[in-house]
Amino acid sequence: MTGPVPPDPVPLLSLRGLSKTYLRRDGLLTRPRAVAAARDVTLDIARGEVLGIVGESGSGKSTVGRMAMRLLEPTAGAVHLDGADITHLSEQALRPLRHKMQMIFQDPSASLNPRQSIRQILTTPLRLRGVAGADATQEMLETLALVGLGPDVLGRAPSTFSGGQRQRLSIARALLMKPELIVADEAVSALDVCVQAQIVNLFRHLRDRFNLSILFIGHDLAVVGVISDRIAVMYRGTLVEIAPTEQLFRRPRHPYTARLLSAEPRRGVLSAPAPPATPAGQHAPDGCVFSARCPHAADACRTRQPALAPVAPGHRAACIRTDLDLEGILPHSN
Ligand SMILES: Nc1ncnc2c1ncn2[C@@H]1O[C@H](COP(=O)(O)OP(=O)(O)OP(=O)(O)O)[C@@H](O)[C@H]1O
What we know:
Layout: E1 13-24, E2 33-45, E3 50-54, H1 61-68, E4 76-81, E5 84-85, H2 91-98, E6 101-104, H3 108-111, H4 118-128, H5 133-146, H6 163-175, E7 181-185, H7 193-210, E8 213-218, H8 221-227, E9 230-235, E10 238-244, H9 245-250, H10 255-262, E11 309-312, E12 315-317
Parallel strand pairs: 3-8, 3-9, 6-7, 7-8
Antiparallel strand pairs: 1-2, 1-4, 4-5, 9-10, 10-12, 11-12
Helix pairs in contact: 4-6, 5-6
């Protein structure tokens, strides 16, 4: 008997109650204070899913991405990859799993060695996988073609490429590790608007082709919305809303999400300005993290942070003002 394929019961990546606290000193003579870069973040990413994380600068997006990659030790919480708890694995024990998780950063120049040719750069992941000789060359060329580059690039140095081409090269290098998960941290933020669209389309194509899971981190809801199946919204280290993309755009349930949406242009999907940054050096209030800026804050909002609670199927929000009818916008056509 055939029927719909049930969803994969084990998410590829599962973040459970992840927190990260830094001690920060604001001046030479001041006492260090604790800064919660991420608080109790719980997220799952299914195989083949693109999960967006959006929020303004300093909201903790990179901290979550780096903890997911086990590049940063969490202060509390757990990271599960394919059902296995990898939170406390040693670097040596992690090594065989590292290839499954690849990270793409905002500035590809920083991760492409300027003294190496593209052939040398792309040889490294192949060597790590034990692929050499003619097989390596063939795989290199196939992967370059996948990211829209030709064989002529192999002898060139990274500095001879544009920003968009360099990002294509870092994606090619990541693909050569045969990853199952890609964490793309502001991977298109530094690019021109039309190049952003091309790279976002490339990520989408690669997801479809390889059933990749992608954690797509960005500050621009319009860009993140184009590629993501679901979006998680962060504010000051706290996950305040998570929903399927269309639902989040159409009917946001947290005032901060509504505010991000109102900063979006109604047309020109990829040209939203960055939202204003969180004021530096301000402590989170005792209550809801957004209460100080929220136009709908009630007294109860200033006394405690609400938990992320279901508001509709697949949709959760950390707001006690469930009575609000917040304004959304029409979703972008994917
Ligand atoms: N090594 C560190 N030491 C102290 N504080 C840190 C450190 N790294 C990050 N932070 C602080 O943690 C908070 C979250 O930073 P994070 O980089 O995760 O935010 P983000 O949303 O990715 O922002 P951006 O896009 O600007 O990087 C910020 O307040 C930041 O200043």
